[in-house]
Prior knowledge:
The protein is of the alpha/beta class. The protein has helices spanning 26-38, 55-67, 100-108, 130-137, 158-165, and strands spanning 2-6, 11-15, 18-22, 42-44, 86-92, 115-122, 142-143, 147-150.
Amino acid sequence: MTAIVYFSRAFENLIDGEKENLHVGNTKIVAQKIAEILDTETIELIPKTAYPKKYQAVFAQAEQEKIMNERPKYKPISLNLEKHQTIYLGYPNWWGTFPMIVATFLEKNDLSGKNIYPFCTHEGSGMGNSIHDLQQLCSNANIHIGLPIRGSRVEKADIAIKNWLQHE
Ligand SMILES: Cc1cc2nc3c(=O)[nH]c(=O)nc-3n(C[C@H](O)[C@H](O)[C@H](O)COP(=O)(O)O)c2cc1C
C-alpha cells in the first residue's frame, strides 16, 4: 500500500517575486492531487509550534533551523509503516532542500527498504539538494526520481503529476 506524507505551509509567501497570502500551501495542493489519482489518504506533518505567517519571519527561522540542523517536532500522525511499501513524500524547497521537519520524520521512522517518491514545490531551485539529503538520511530506502513543481504552477500541474505517477 501507498502513503502520502507531506509538509506544507500556508499564509504569506513569495510567488514569482510577489508576496501572496496562500490559503492552502502549494505542496498540499500537489499532495491532494496525488491522493485523488491514487485514491489514498494524505498524512500531513503539522508542526507542534506553528511557523510564522509572515514570509520574512519564516524565511529567517527556516535558515536558522537548517544551520543548527534542528529537528522541529510535529503533531502525532497515524502511519503504520508495516502496511506501506511506497511513500510519496512532499515538501516545499526551503533553503535548497527539504524543511528540517521532514528530517524529523525521516529519522523517527524506519524507512529501510521502502520506496520513496519525493515531490516538492519551489520558486526556481527545483528539488535542490533534497534528493542527496534524502539519500544521506535514509540510506537504506530506495529513493526514486522526484517531481519538482513551481509553486505558481501547481494548479496547472495535473499532466506532470500523472506522468510522474506512471513510473514502473
Ligand atoms: C522559508 C522558505 C525558504 C524557501 N527557500 C527556497 C529555496 O531555497 N529555493 C526555492 O526555489 N524556493 C524556496 N522557497 C519557496 C518555496 O519553496 C515555494 O514557495 C513553495 O511552493 C512553498 O510550498 P508550500 O506552500 O507548500 O509551503 C522558500 C520558501 C520559504 C517560505
